[in-house]
Amino acid sequence: MSISLQSKLPRVGTTIFSTMSQLAQQHGAINLSQGFPDFNCPPALMDLVNEAMHAGHNQYAPSPGLPVLRQKISEKTQLLYGYLPHPDTEVTVTSGATEALFAAIAAVVHPGDEVMVLEPCYDSYVPAIELSGGVPVFVPLRFPDFSVDWQQVEDRLTQKTRLLIINSPHNPSGAVWQPTDLEALARLTQKFPFLILSDEVYEHMVFDGKPHLSLLTVPALAQRAFVVSSFGKTYHTTGWKVGYCIAPPALTAEFRKVHQYLTFSTATPFQHALASFLDNQEHYLTLPAFYQQKRDLFTQLLAPSKFELLPCPGTYFQLARYSKISSTPDVEFSKWLTKEAGVAVIPVSVFNHDGLDHGVIRFCFAKKEETLRAAAERLCLL
To answer: Which of 99, 177, 301, 355 is the most interior residue, by most CB within 10 Å?
Structure first.
């Protein structure tokens, strides 16, 4: 007798990130698609992992994370945002930020609940909502600056809205929130009883002297929010898959119920190493300048090209229009660029549920200088 299988995610296939990276490998293209550095993490951090392994820290860590690491996260949070989360009841270490996002959604979204998503958005949000039986409600960000239309957000909020997912600095656009955004969000929380999931993995990549405006800087927002961060983004270690979530005790308790059955705990030697390395404040405090230098170099290198670069106030992504080169859809153009020009990128339409296409592609500039120069040389030939 044949087996009948009904997919829980019928519209989901291989992610565009995997597709473009594979295409880059097949054609020997320079990979500016997937968001990871092509340079190493600090050598001292690798040494600390090695020391932790040789010291015997190779078994399960406590499910919420090593106490020493949660304490260091709490201290860092207070330093940066003036908010001191209790390490025992408000901080949870996760196997990457994506796990934290999934666990937060699964913890509070029930079948039929509405979850508001601002598009374009990171591609893990909607599948996680659907797996929990939630109903995604999409609100487009304004193009081309990708700012939030708060009137439209308010118009789409209902008493069934369980969760609002926000992301600043924003992937894929690089947009960052302004003080007026926090004020507008705070006003809406006085009218509707929704929770907030704040994806802040690029918190240390805000440029031009501007601060990162975390939800944790506003007590009224922090008390109804899951705030997600990524050690992978901060320390150039995306392959380690270590992140964390800060949330008030009641939300953390529900979050941990999911987390303990999702991954249980995160790699122990990495946690020991990160706990020690967090004493080095210089690394994350100088990260904005580090990535701004790469942004400015890439912008300068592409100045002679036919690409029109959009403003990039944060993240390590640069968006560009390509209308002077081609009128083809962005997915088609991205594949052509990979095969024919030898540079892999990400089409921005894939971040929209309906494939809305503004003719814009995304470059990742978290690369060595020689990588950026080689890519720009090819792009300027178009």
So the answer is: 177
Alpha-carbon distances, residue 226 vs 62, 75, 244, 378 (angstroms):
20, 18, 10, 42
In a shared domain, residues 30 and 174: no
Distance from C-alpha of 299 to C-alpha of 303, rounded to nearest angstrom? 6
Tokens of residue 34, six digits: 């997937």
Q: Which residues have a Cβ under 8 Å from the Cβ of 31 and sit 6 or more positions away? A: 20, 21, 24, 25, 38, 344
Q: What's the number of CA atoms in the CB half-sphere (13 Å) around residue 242?
A: 24
Count: domains in the chain = 2
pLDDT in tens, 212-222: 999 999 999 99
CATH of the domain at 314: 3.90.1150.10
Q: What is the CATH number of the domain that holds 132?
A: 3.40.640.10
pLDDT band at 2 (very low <50, low <70, confident <90, very high): confident
Q: 103: closest CA among 267, 247, 270, 271?
A: 247
For the chain, how are helix, strand and coil distributed in percent, rounded to 5?
Answer: 40, 15, 40
Nearest CA among 229, 225, 204, 207 for reference residue 216: 225
Residues 64 and 149 in one domain: yes
Maximum pairwise Cα distance, the chain: 65
**For 349-379, what is each residue's pLDDT tens digit?**
999 999 999 999 999 999 999 999 999 999 9
Q: Which domain holds residue 304?
A: 16-35+285-379
Query: 351 and 256, same structural domain?
Result: no
Q: Tell me: do 147 and 66 sit in the same domain.
A: yes
* SS3 at position 75: helix
308 beta partners? 321
pLDDT at 240: 98
Return the pLDDT at 251. 98
